[in-house]
Amino acid sequence: MRPAGAVEKNWGKHRAERANLDKRDKLIQEVIDTERSYVASLQTMAAQYAAPLKENPQKYGVKREQVATVFENIDPIAAFHLIFLVELEKERNLAKVIIRFGDFLKMYTTFISTYDKVVRLLGQMRKSSKFTRFLDETRMHVECKGLDLMSFMIMPIQRIPRYELLLRELISCSEIDPDLNQAYDRIRYIAKHVNETQRHVENMLKLLEIQDRITNSDLEFDLLQPHRRLIKEGRLQQKTASKLHKLKPRVIFLFSDIILWTSTSNSYLGHIDLSCVTIKDHDSEKNKDITFRLGIDGNEASDLVWRCETPAECVEWREAINTAMVKLCEVFVSRLDEKDRERFVAMSGDVTVGKAEMLRQAKLSIRRKKYERQQGGAMHTFMKEKLHELQTNNNTIGNDDDDKESSFEASTITSEVNNE
User: Fold this and answer.
1) What gap in Å lies between CA 397 and CA 16, rounded to an integer?
2) For position 341, what pLDDT does the model report?
3) DSSP codes, 23-88
4) CB 250: neighbour CB atoms within 10 A?
5) Residues 205-241: tens digit of each pLDDT
6) Nearest-CA neighbor of 291 among 301, 299, 279, 302?
7) What fold is seen in the domain 227-384?
8) DSSP string of 354-410?
9) At what angle do helices 64-71 and 115-125 cross, to 10 degrees?
10) Is it true that domain 10-213 has CATH number 1.20.900.10?
11) Are the CB atoms for 232 and 218 separated by under 8 Å?
């Protein structure tokens, strides 16, 4: 006769095994259910969005090659997952199906690598009122359940991390299984690429949302740029240049390379390049702790005066802008090759700034271009100070002559921007 303790121990082990088996069954069913939903969503996108656009792109104010580019890497994914779902329902074993079709999952890396391009292209296409109207009307179809095209396009990026999570949970409630480990390694490799771009994708979608919110057509540049990130957004009051100095409510956006502001009704009002900005204290003691000025290339007549609700908010904005300016300066220096970097820090006047990718991509405001033509393109004081600071701290950019004045040739900057 077995001791009571041994019986209880075996019974406990049996209950644990049974609990793990039940958990595995639920996880497998969850995989199948979510896969069905995923395939159905991809089919909805193909039928409601892709098919009409492919059939008659001119009707919606876009070009056939634009439509082809948008859907060229998601169409194979949709076709593949139809087969993947059938095999999954038949096998009821996620690990084996992933191993069998693992090579096909590599198409996700292609989709991810071109996602930026697709988002920017959609941003350009949305400038067509016909295309925008088509998107707005289609999302209201019963089949779309209120989802716009971008909501469908991001689903493949969200799907791979889901596989990784489900496989991890299956491993946790299973005995050692080589198939599970092999499948998990394959998915984790792809998920790594997805996770590296997930934040960037979310930022691009945010930029697209902001661009769509701007209601008039005065935006003189494409807000969607691979290097551009949204840092801070908020509502401030802008002091007008009129004699009455009225305060006007504005929505202000701080990006990694520019500051842009609109009216509260989302009409574009202006933007400035961070490389030509200085943060100043308010010149009046009244409301000094809640007000700051943005100087533009030393031209006091062009200063922008912003008022916050509280002193804490004012400090937050000043610190955010200053941090963005420092990072922009570091990027600027890092993009120069060694020869130009030495010449730049040596403050010689013939630096080939066109080799800095950041300057080629930057879309300078009309005010900055006008001022550079008038002043001969003098380099902004802030940039000179930060370059000296980087030189002192890092000792990587060699020249200690702090007395020489750094300058850009305005024609060089302008030509590089125009020739982009």
Assistant:
1) 63
2) 58
3) HHHHHHHHHHHHHHHHHHHHHHHIIIIIHHHHH-GGGGT--HHHHHHHHTTTHHHHHHHHHHHHHH
4) 18
5) 888 888 888 865 566 677 888 788 999 999 999 987 6
6) 279
7) PH-domain like (2.30.29)
8) GG-HHHHH----HHHHHHHHHHT-BPPHHHHHHHHHHHHHH--S----TTSPPB--H
9) 140
10) yes
11) no
Whole-angstrom distance between the N-terminal and C-terminal Cα of the chain?
88
pTM of the model: 0.63
Higher model confidence: residue 333 or residue 155?
Answer: 155
* Dist. CA 26–CA 167, nearest whole Å: 13
pLDDT tier, 322 (very low <50, low <70, confident <90, very high otherwise): confident
The domain ranges of the chain are: 10-213, 227-384
Strand runs labelled E in 216-323: 230-239, 247-255, 258-263, 268-273, 277-281, 291-296, 299-307
Calculate what percentage of the chain has a pLDDT beyond 70.
71
> Model confidence at 5, in pLDDT bands (50, 70, 90)?
low
Please name the amino acid found at residue 193. Answer: H
- What three-state secondary structure class fits 8? helix
Tokens of 300: 């006091």
Which distant-in-sequence residues (6+ apart) come within 8 Å of 139 by Cβ? 146, 147, 148, 149
- Confidence at residue 413, expressed as pLDDT on a 0 to 100 scale: 30
Half-sphere exposure of 305 (CA within 13 A, CB side): 19
